[in-house]
Amino acid sequence: MIEKGKISASQMSVMMYHAIIATGILFIPKTVFDAAQQDIWISPLWAFPLGLLSVYIAYKLHKLYPDDTIMQYSEHILGVFFGKVIGFILLLLLYTSISVMVWQYGEFVVSEFLPHTPKYVVIGMMILLCAFAVHGGLEVIGRLSEMVFPVFFLLFLVIVVLLLPDIEIKRMLPVMENGIMPSVKGSLALYTWFAQFGIIYFFFPYLTNREKGMKWGGISVLAVTITLVLTNIIVILVFGRVTGNFTAPLMSAARYISIAEFLSHLEAIVMAIWIAGTFIKICVFYYALVLGTAQWFNLSNYRSLVLPTGFLIGVFAIQAFLNSAEASEHFHEVSHGLTDTLVYGLIIPMFLLSIAYIRKMKIFKQKGREKK
Amino acid sequence: MKGVYIFSVTAVAVLMFIYQWSKIKSTKKKEKMVFSFLMIIGWSLAVTYIVFPNMDSPAKMVDHVLTSLRNIFLGIFS
C-alpha cells in the first residue's frame, strides 16, 4: 500500500470535523442568512442527513473494496479507462475546491489582519507549512488535528460564553415565521460544506479499527451540526436582522465583546482558532489530492509529489478570483445547489456505488444460472 | 514588473526541482516523469497567469460548466 501510516477512527473523525468546520464557522451564518433569515440555526439540522449520507456511501464503498481508496476502486468498478476518467474529474474538482479554500484564507487574512502583506506571501507560507505536514504523512495530520481540537473547542466556547451578556432572545423570534421552507432553502447553501464529508473515502482504508469507521464518521457529522447550530444561534442572538451585512459575523461579534473595559479585541482569538482549523483543513484536502494523484499514476510513493502539487495549488489559489466581487458571485452560485463539492462528495460516489451493486447482482445471477 | 515575477516563479520552481530531484531514487523513472510533468504544468500555468492576468481560473471554469449542466438538467424537467 502506498501509505504505510495508520490512524484511529477517532483521529479521522477529528480531522473531518476540522475539514468542514474551519471555514464554515465564519462564513456559514451570512451565506445561510440570505435565505433563512432568523431561522439560520435550524438549517444545519436539515443538512445533517446529507452529511450522514455521504459518509454512509463512502463507508458502503469501503466495505466492498476494503483496501482501496476511490482512485483504485473506480477502476475496479468501471474498468481502467472510465475509472481513470472519473479519477481525473475527481482530481480536477479537488484542485478547484482547495484553490477556493486557500484563496478564502488568503483574502481573509489580508483584509482583516495583514493589510500590507502581499497575498502570495500569506498563501505561499500556508502552503509551505501544509507541505511539511503532508510530507510527514497521514499519522502526522491525524495527531496534529487531535492536538488542535481541544484548543479550538475551548476557545470557541470562551467566545460563546463571553458573548452571552450581549444576547437578546427576541432577535430570533418569531421562530419559523414563514414555515419551515426558508430554513430548508438555507440548508441548500450548507450542502456545500456537508458534502465535503465525502472526502472521507480517502481515509477509510488507513484506519486501525475499520469496523468503527461509520460510527466515528457519524459522530463527526453530529459534532459539526452541533457546532454550526451553536454558532448560528449565537450570531442571530447578537446581531438579529443585520447578520447579512457582515462577511464573517462571528468575527464581528467577537469584536463586539467588551467586558469591564479590559477584556476586548477578542477577534484575535477567533483568528487564532480559525487559522489553526484552516491549517488542518488545507492539510486534509492537500493530502487527499497528493495521494489521489499518486494513485492515479500508479506510483509507489507519494512524497515526491508534495511540492509540485503545492506549487500548483498556490498558482490556482492566487488566480482563483480576481477580486471579492467575483468571489461573492461564486458563493452566490454555490448557494443555489449543484456545486463542485456536491459532485465529488456525493454524486460520483453514489454513481460508483450503484454501478457496483448492479455488477454484483449480475455476478450473483450468473452464478445462479451456473448452478441450475 | 512581470519579468521580476516570472524570474521569481522560475527561481522557486528550480529550487524545488533541485531539492526534490536528488531525493527520488534513480530506479524510479515513473516518479521522475510524473514529478517533472506536474512541475512543468505548474510553472507554465504560473507564467501564463502572470502574462495574462485576466485569464479564467479553474474554479470559475468549473462553476461555468456546472451551471450550464444544471440549466440543462432543469430544462429537462420544466
Automatic annotation (TrEMBL), chain A:
Membrane topology classification: Multi-pass membrane protein
Name under which the protein is recorded: Germination protein
Any one GO biological process: spore germination
Keyword Kinase: no
Subcellular compartments: Membrane
Similarity field: Belongs to the amino acid-polyamine-organocation (APC) superfamily. Spore germination protein (SGP) (TC 2.A.3.9) family.
Key words of the record: Germination, Membrane, Transmembrane, Transmembrane helix, Transport
UniProtKB/TrEMBL annotation, chain B:
Key words, A-Z: Membrane, Transmembrane, Transmembrane helix
Stretches that traverse the bilayer: 6-22, 34-52
Top-level taxon of origin: Bacteria
Name of the protein this chain belongs to: Uncharacterized protein
UniProt source species: Oceanobacillus sojae
Top-level taxonomy: Bacteria, Bacillati, Bacillota, Bacilli, Bacillales
